[in-house]
């Protein structure tokens, strides 16, 4: 499983890179703040919403601490998606939130 730290993700955003972030936390958790531009897709809905994703794109998957995003990454990888787990999740995120 490919992984990236919260700091590495923040650096990509600060450099103006186009990154596709999927936040798999529950709606009430996301309400407390999410990475700007992240798409909310609770873990339980990933299976039903993966048709919204593009296999030619790379996605960074985020949750609270890195566990649920790890499960989402394994699941999406098994369907041929190019996904990266953000280790440490939002607990290690020091960048801007919206």
Automatic annotation (TrEMBL):
One of its GO terms (molecular function) is transferase activity. Transmembrane segments: none annotated. CDD domains: RHOD (cd00158). Pfam families: Rhodanese. PROSITE patterns: RHODANESE_3 (PS50206). Residues 15-98 form the Rhodanese domain. InterPro entries: GlpE_sulfurtransferase, Rhodanese-like_dom, Rhodanese-like_dom_sf. This is Rhodanese-related sulfurtransferase. It comes from Neobacillus niacini.
């Amino acid at each position: 499983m490919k992984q990236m730290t919260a700091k590495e993700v923040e650096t990509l955003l600060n450099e103006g890179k186009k990154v596709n972030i999927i936040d798999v936390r529950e709606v009430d958790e996301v309400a407390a703040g999410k990475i700007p531009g992240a798409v909310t897709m609770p873990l339980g809905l990933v299976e039903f919403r993966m048709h919204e994703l593009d296999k030619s794109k790379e996605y960074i998957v985020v949750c609270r601490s890195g566990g649920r995003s790890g499960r989402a990454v394994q699941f999406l990888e098994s369907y041929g998606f190019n996904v990266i787990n953000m280790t440490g999740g939002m607990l290690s995120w020091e960048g801007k939130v919206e």
